[in-house]
Each structure stands twice: as structure tokens, then as C-alpha cells.
Amino acid sequence: MERKIRVLVAKPGLDGHDRGAKVIARALRDAGMEVIYTGLRQTPEMIASAALQEDVDVIGLSILSGAHNAIVPRVMELLREKDMTDVSVIVGGIVPDDDAEQLKRQGVAAVYQPGASLEDIVGFIRGLPARKLIPEN
Amino acid sequence: MQKTAVAGRSFTTLSGVSVEPFYEDDGGPPLEAPGEFPYTRGIHRTMYQGRLWTMRQFSGFATPEETNRRYHYLLEQGQTGLSVAFDLPTLMGCDADDPLSEGEVGKCGAPVSSLQDMEILLEGIPLGEVSVSMTINSPASVIWAMYLAVAEKQGVEWTRLAGTIQNDILKEYIAQKEFLYPPRPSMRLVTDSIEFATRRAPRFNPVSISGYHIREAGSTAVQELAFTLRDGIEYVDWALERGLSVDEFAPRLSFFLNAHNDFFEQIAKYRAARRLWAHLMRDRYGAHDERSLKLRFHAQTAGCSLTWQQPNNNIVRTAIQAMAAVLGGAQSLHTNSLDEAYALPSEAAVTIALRTQQVIAHESGVTAAPDPLGGSYFLERLTRDSEEAALDYIRRIDRMGGMIPAIETGFPQGEIAESSYRYQREIESGGKIVVGVNAFQSPDQEPIEILQIDHSAHERQVGKLRALRARRDGRAVIRALEALRRAAEGTANTMPYILDAVRAYATLGEICNALRDVFGSYQEPSSI
Fold first, then answer.
1. How far is B320 from B244, CA to CA, in rounded Å?
2. CB-based contact A17 B94, cutoff 8 Å
């Protein structure tokens, strides 16, 4: 049997608006993925170590406060330090086009802005290169 | 008469309530006149014939200085009240120089770390004349104390102050999630401010019981109505427990409701809210003062309905939503700006939003008669159905032992998550249409101008704060914070102690931390 895709859905920063994070988490779970939701107010350090501990393939960051330019680069830096560059990072939230381009240049796999469809997000994650090919027994 | 739906189509409201093919006279009870108990048709006989609603645009960004300039601009443009938006660090009780504030200072509102920032924010605003609403919850008593201290410096008696602090902590646990302390000590702080307002600032609304954020988090209209009123019951119970009598404080309880897209469902919600609250206050609490029975509310158009795609369409959505709030008898109104799916609004966008209210007020003619849609078969039925469905929820929460046990078991949070997921699936399937998003898309989109907040705002705030810490009497700050800790450990009202700390220029973060030393902090159990 193929290993299920493991996704960490995280809410970094001070913002408590978790509607989007929760909807995405449920949609990914309904699509057959293994979803871990961190809860609110996670620091980049907490997110990187949760990703390592949970052995995830994908990290989804939900940021609606405009703090993405401070938070996302720090997460990317920590993943490099921990030698976890094979983990894909996806950002969802209120991210202007210019910032989205900037984040992608820093290694973010995709940025989803308001109105993005769940189906597109699920499809994108399924299409990511497999991080682990070891089948479960 | 046979009622047959058009083949293959069934209609539901935005909240998923099924709608019949048409409505007719179903012999519902006769309606009272506007201004009469239970106020279904409005709290005043004359409604907007007597006085228009307060046009109150929520705003704050970058620094207290820039926000103060925006307030003067809005007042010059004909706005009639102020509404302060604070940034996330302030909402979470963090100073601008706290490591947790990194990247967030001035982004979602104005940063206020000390009395000094509040003095700048309100510079030149006559507090005896302009009513000021402040959206602040966990640290509400600290921010309110800063406001009261500025009034002192302006020489304005507290008894003359009109305004509102949101101070609705229950909806934070339910929906917006900006909490610091566990529910029970937080409720004690809210009750302290209700008591203090009753005794010392009787024209100030010490709590604005908010459904807005509940709806924005994805609830249905009925869930918004039910959870908001049940939160109201909780505040009343705590104030009574404190020893206040209901007619002493209930006239100053105010509400804040969402104005979403579904026009009739919204108007029905406001009418049902008034009717329910009047009955609850009279029958459950034995209130006699008419002002205790009347539900007064501020409305804001639905931020979550604004789309990133084709942003000019948001002007139209906001106008329809604002019209629903007016036809539903709102006392004050905020209209969102077209660019708010992107960022805080630009001055041009805010001006259109304010003009939208002015067009409704002065050109549309809807202000001519109170409750002009009263008597519509459809609206009356929706009003009764909303009332019954909300009462059902209220009774369920009563059986759980009240809102705090309900929150601790995750009941309202789970109901909202369920509704928001169902709504998102309806958009995915095309069952619900959002113009420009899942239908009528345009391939090319004109870029719009958006407000940029640069990092220098953060640096300037940190600079001012460091200078303040160096300048103030450090020993006086330590003494005031220690006195506050002792008060928090006991049962005294914390407000006078918070006021003393604020006057000594203790910072927001220092005061919130002193309270955290005593109350502890709160992490919600995370679940999906």
C-alpha cells in the first residue's frame, strides 16, 4: 500500500483567524491525506520541529495578518538548517502578488490567495514529487 | 394553493435554510408598532426619521500618528463617530518591542503600547463630543484605562464620555481566538469593567456583545444570533453575581452583528435578535427599565464576503449588506472598503465606503418609515424561524451549564467549523455562486492600488517605547504593577489598579504580563 501524504497545517504568528486553516485541514483529510493541525500561535521554530517530528511531506502555512514576509523566510531557513529541504511549503492567506512571487523565489512551492479552490490545492499537493518512496508493509 | 417549485431547483438561504416556492399569510401573530415591546420592528417609534444611524468606519494602521490623521480626515468627511482598530500585538497584549510582535506592528491596525501612544492617537479629538468605539478584547480594561486617562488629561469628566469597548471575551474563545487568560479570570475582568462603567462612566458601553466574528468564522446566521445572545446571558449572569441589579447595567449592554449577503435572512436576524433579547431580559431577568429590554446594535458588512477577484464588485456587495443593516434598524454601521480582501483600505476606498452609507441615508428613501419591510410574508416567517432556531441553541447551551462549559467542550467552535466547511463545499460544487470567483470570472484583472505599511512604522514605535521606558519613574511602575498583582489575587475590582499603572506609564505588555502572573494563560485544545 502506498504511504499516505502527510501534511502539517500550521497557523504561525499572532493571528487567530483559523477558519481557512481548518477548512483546508478537513478538505485534505477528506482527500485521504494524513493531516496534523498545530493549533494557533506557532513560532517558526515550533513549526519546523513539528514537521520533523511528524515526518511530514508538506507544510501548509495559513497567514492572514500580513506578517508573511517576516514569518515564511524564517520557516524556510529553519528547514534548510534541519536538512528538510525535501519538505514542500505551501502558503495560504492574504498575500499580495509581488510578495507571492518573492516567497516562491525563496523556495515556497505555491501561494494560494483568497478564492482559491480546495480542489486545486488538493490536486497540487498530489502532484508534488514524492518525498519518500518506501512502501508501507 | 398548491406550491410547486420550479423543476429541478430548490432554494436555500446563504445559511442553508430551505426556502419555500412562495410565502403567503400564515396567520402569524399581529405585530406591535415600532418602538413597542418586544421591539421586533425597531427600538424607536420614529427610527431614522428622528436621527440617522451613526456612520462609524473602523480604522487604524501603521502608527498612532498616521491613524490620528486618518481620524481627522474621516470626521472632516462627515463621519459621525470613531472606531479604533488596533494591530495584532496590541490585541494580544504585546508591546511593539516584544519578539512576538515581529512583522505585525501596525499591519492590521494602530499599535498602542502605552498611554503615550493613546495620547497621540486621540490628539485633537474632543472626547466629550465624539463617541469612540474601540475593538479590543483580552486587554480591554487596560486600553480603556488609557482612554479614561487621556480624558482626564483633556479635562473631560468620565460621566460625559460616550463610546464602546468591545470587551467580549466569550466570542474570542468561540471564534476570533484572541485570548490571553483562561475563560473564568477573563470573565472576572469583563465584569470588573461592567461594574466600573456602571459606577463611574455610565454613558460608556463596557461590552459590545459580538456576533460579527462568529459569522466571519463561518457560522450560519442562526448560529451567530444564538451564540451572541447566549454570550449576552452569560455577561448578565456574572454582573448579577457581582451584586449589580439588572436595570443598573443592562441599558449599557450593546451588540455588534454581521451584515452578510443574504438580504432577507439578515433583516430577519436583526428583528429576531431584538425580540429574543426583550423577552429574555423581561422574563428571565425581570428587567423593568425599557432601556434594559432594547437591543441596540452596531452592524458591519461582511469582510468574509469580499472577493479578491474583481474587487470593484465589493462596492455592490457592501451596498446591499449595508441596506440590510439599515432596513433591520441598526444604530450604527461600518461599511467595508472594496480593497479589504487585499489589505487595510486606502483612503480612496474608505471614502467610497462612507459615501455608500451617505447615499443610502440621503438618496434611497429607505429612512422614511421604520421597519419598512415589516409585514412581508417572507420576512415575518424568516424572523419567526430564526427566533425559534436560536432559542433551540440557547436551551442546549443552558443544559450544558452555560457558555463557559460549552466553550470548554468545543461545542460552538465545532458547530461553526461544520458550517464553514459545508459552505466551502457548496462553493466548490457550484451549489452556491460567488460572482467572479466560481462563476462569471474575468481572465484579466486590473491591479488595484493597495495601502502599504512599511517596516519603518515598527522601528518608530520601538524607538518611542524605549525612550519612554528610560524617561518614566521606574519605581512607580513597579509599585503599581505589584499593587495590581495583589488586587488580581484577591476579589477587588481591578480597574482602579490598572488605571494607576497606566497613569505611571506602565506598558500594555507589562500590565498584561502582571495579570498573566496571577491568572495564567490559555491554550485551546486544537482540533479539526
1. 41
2. no
pLDDT single digits (tens) A52-65: 999 999 999 999 98
SS (H, E, C) B65-84: HHHHHHHHHHHHCCCCCEEE
Pick the CATH number of B36-429 from 3.40.50.300, 3.40.50.2300, 3.40.50.1000, 3.20.20.240: 3.20.20.240
Q: Could you tell me the pLDDT band of residue B3, with boundaries at 50, 70 and 90?
A: low
With contacts defined as CB-CB under 8 Å, which chain B residues touch A14?
Answer: 88-89, 91-92, 94, 100-101, 104
Contacts of A18 in chain B (CB under 8 A): 177, 217
In 3-state terms, what secondary structure has residue B396? helix
Q: Does residue A132 form part of some domain?
A: no
Task: Give the dihedral sign, CA B502/B507/B512/B517.
Answer: negative
- Pairing assessment for the beta strands B207-210 and B332-334 based on DSSP bridges: unpaired
pLDDT digit string, tens, across residues B348-407: 999 999 999 999 999 999 999 999 999 999 999 999 999 999 999 999 999 999 999 999
Domain count, chain A: 1
Q: Does B450 touch chain A (CB under 8 A)?
A: yes
> Measured between alpha carbons, how far is residue A120 from residues A117, B50, B248, B448 in Å?
5, 52, 55, 25
Residue B440, C-alpha cell as written in the block: 462569471
Which DSSP symbol is given to B8? T
Q: How far apart are the first and last CA of chain A?
A: 7
What is the pLDDT confidence band of residue B1, given thresholds at 50, 70 and 90? very low
| Nearest C-alpha neighbor of B467 from the set B130, B75, B96, B159 | B96
- Partner-chain contact A114 B308, CB within 8 Å: yes
More confident residue, B178 or B81: B178
Burial class (CB in 10 A: 0-12, 13-18, 19+), B377: middle
Q: How far is CA B7 from CA B88, B138, B402, B497, in A?
A: 50, 52, 45, 67
Confidence of residue B188 (pLDDT cuts 50, 70, 90): very high
What b-and-e string marks burial along B54-74, b requiring 16 or more CB atoms within 10 Å of the CB? bbbbbbbbbbbbbbbebbeeb
CB-CB under 8 Å, A15 with B103? no
Per CB-CB distance under 8 Å, the chain B contacts of A37 are 526-528
Q: What is the CATH number of the domain that holds A17?
A: 3.40.50.280
- CB B43 within 8 Å of CB B329: yes
d(CA B162, CA B158): 9
For B102-121, give the DSSP string: TTTTTTSSB---SHHHHHHH
Residues paired with B507 in a beta bridge: none
CB–CB contact A66 B176 (8 Å): no
Q: Could you give the maximum distance between any two Cα atoms of chain B, in Å?
A: 81
